[in-house]
Specification:
The protein has helices at 4-29, 54-72, 93-106, 118-131, 158-172, 186-201, 220-227, 240-252, 267-274, 296-308, 316-335, 341-349, and strands spanning 40-47, 81-88, 111-113, 135-136, 151-152, 178-183, 208-212, 233-237, 258-261, 282-285, 353-356, 359-362, 375-379, 385-387. The chain has 397 residues and is of the alpha/beta class. The protein has two domains: 40-155 and 292-366, 3-Layer(aba) Sandwich (Rossmann fold); 158-285 and 376-387, 3-Layer(aba) Sandwich (Rossmann fold). The protein has a seven-stranded mixed sheet with strand order 7-6-8-9-10-13-14, with helices on both faces. A five-stranded parallel sheet has the order 2-1-3-4-5, with helices on both faces. Helix 9 links the parallel strand 9 and strand 10. Helix 8 runs parallel beside helix 9 (267-274). The radius of gyration is 24 Å and the shape is globular.
């Protein structure tokens, strides 16, 4: 017979083995989390990689990938690499629906990140919501996304951007004759709703409204419509190609008000399309200036961008993509090793304040939008952006 000491030792060993094996067995028996394995977490992105908005999708993808590489180079998150699979929706809602289903059902992604556009997000979110899949940091400020249960917004809303525009036009320049040109879809309507809300606060109305079709540069009719209103300023809600075309044609026919547009435009691409003729065009931004020397997060972004793609030019869109990637990483870090979709969403909603190298995000139970910041920029005579603290009127060309 075993001695009492031997029996105690055997019992202790058996108990120790049980405490190790039970969690392992439980984990083995638990339902697997889509997109999550011991080695990786897989994310999906449906965005425009072709067509007139292609630079927006490419910029967001570049920034997300730079953030993921930054984390992967130091061992990933809780030992898991972060990977991104992307598909092109051409900025079309029907393609966004197909892509979202493919990413969820065929690719088996854990979450969706960096979707581009209001009409595409409006179509994709119900698909993601039905599957319980997080929809993180879409490149849009549409209001409807601020109340969706599986959506986590990084950026300020279009209502906040357009409020800043109208505030600056009326306060800095004393302008009250403002026209609006919008893309004829849910993005354009979201921007117009923001402008109208800002007008109503001040007892104003648009002097004219022009409309053009999505994914085209067919803006001449819109120009004719707004010219009738003799505007001193024009707020434009669109992507870079039609906005650049509108500005060029308007100036060609002698219509040269103060032009302002939203962050969604794709700032770097807009400046490239316009060239030197872009001088004096104002763009509201929702991320800090990418080349700022006094910004820790901008410096971190530039290092990550360079490490991912040597020679890549910093820009507002890829900076937003980088911050989207950083937000994903922060959420996974806070979740711990036992991550699942519900835990991911709840972790962000209950995160309170998140500090991304000085760029502060705040979430809450009833607040799925992290940042309220809006920054004003202007294209100068050399075709480059510079920060602006106030509007200075038209720039002589």
């Amino acid at each position: 017979m075993r001695s009492r000491a031997a029996q105690v030792a055997l019992t202790a060993a058996a108990w120790a083995a049980t405490t190790v094996l039970v969690p392992l067995l439980a984990a083995a028996q638990a339902d697997p989390v889509p997109g999550v394995s011991v080695e990786r977490v897989l994310f999906g992105q449906s965005a425009a990689f072709s067509g007139p908005a292609a630079e927006l999708g490419r910029g967001m993808r570049l920034g997300i990938q730079a953030a993921f590489k930054e984390a992967n180079d130091t061992g990933g998150v809780h030992g898991r690499r972060l990977e991104l699979v992307t598909v092109d929706d051409g900025y079309e809602p029907e393609a966004a629906i197909r892509n979202t289903r493919r990413l969820i059902e065929d690719e088996g992604v854990f979450a969706l990140v960096g979707g581009v556009g209001t009409p595409t997000s409006r179509s994709a979110v119900p698909v993601a919501d039905e599957a319980g899949v997080p929809y993180v940091a879409p490149f849009t400020g549409a209001g409807f996304l601020r109340s969706e249960p599986h959506v986590i917004n990084l950026r300020s809303s279009y209502a906040q951007e357009t409020e800043e525009m109208v505030e600056r036009l009326t306060r800095d320049l004393g302008i009250d004759r403002i026209a609006v040109v919008i893309q004829n879809d849910s993005f354009g309507r979201a921007g117009l709703a923001g402008v109208r809300a800002a007008f109503e606060k001040r007892g104003m109305e648009a002097v004219a409204i022009g409309v053009y079709p999505r994914n085209t540069t067919a803006v001449k009719t819109a120009i004719v419509d707004i010219k009738v209103g003799r505007p001193e300023a024009v707020i434009m809600v669109g992507a870079y190609q039609p906005v650049a075309s509108l500005i060029a044609w308007a100036r060609h026919i002698g219509l040269d008000p103060v032009f302002m547009t939203l962050s969604f435009v794709g700032s770097n691409a807009l400046a490239e399309e316009l060239g030197p003729s872009g001088a004096g065009v104002y763009v509201t931004q929702v991320v800090p200036f990418p080349t700022a020397r006094n910004s820790r997060v901008a410096a971190a972004y530039r290092r990550a961008l360079s490490a991912h793609t040597a020679g890549a030019a910093p820009g507002f869109v890829s900076f937003e993509g980088y911050l989207a990637g950083r937000l994903v990483i922060e959420a996974l870090e806070r979740c711990g090793s036992a991550v699942d979709r519900d835990r991911f969403i709840e972790t962000l909603k209950n995160a309170g304040s998140i500090d991304l190298d000085g760029f502060r995000l705040v979430f809450g139970d009833e607040d799925n939008q992290g940042s309220d910041a809006v920054f004003l920029t202007v294209i100068d005579e050399r075709g480059r952006y510079r920060p602006a603290t106030r509007l200075e009127g038209a720039v002589k060309r």
